[in-house]
Amino acid sequence: MADVRALRSPWSVVVLAALVAYAWWLSGLVAFTTSATVAVAVPVAALLAVALLTPSARAPDDRPRPDTAVAARRLAPWLALVSMAVVLEIVGLALGGRSPAVPTLSTVVDHALVDRFSRFALCCAWLGIGVLAVLRRPRGRRPGRG
């Protein structure tokens, strides 16, 4: 879970405000332009750099091994949901991509991205998921601390 103390720091308010402002700015860009593509790539590259450059809290050899049956039970609903979404997308695309009977995820998202506020809300959610993934990531050990 994310460190609650980190969420209460004054910097978290600044980061949150910056992310909301960035999402508002990004939601105003015209889709599929170079500036929009670069604006989407910047947070992806930043979070990828943090994920790759932040050392893991555990060495690979002392990582606890989860029980396979428990891991499979926890993962099964997510795999089923993703599988259904992929199958729905494939069927929709096979029907021409714009079928009103079987809408693809792309078609549904296109309708949601019509106005700026919905683009802003989806952008905030996207940035929030990325930030939470970084906050929940185990941090490296500090020298002198076991």
Q: In summary, what is this structure?
A:
The chain has about 150 residues and is mainly α.
Global mean pLDDT: 78
> How many DSSP helices?
6
Largest sheet: none
Number of extended strands: 0
Radius of gyration: 20 Å
Number of domains: 1
Unreliable stretches, pLDDT < 50, 5 or more residues?
Answer: 141-146
Q: How many angstroms separate the termini?
A: 20 Å
The rough form would be described as: flat
Helix content: 55-70%
Helix/strand order: HHHHHH
Strand percent estimate: under 5%
Structural class: mainly alpha
Description:
The protein has helices at 4-7, 10-27, 34-53, 68-94, 105-112, 116-136. The chain is mostly helical and 146 residues long. The chain has one domain. The protein starts with a helix and ends in a 10-residue tail after the last helix.
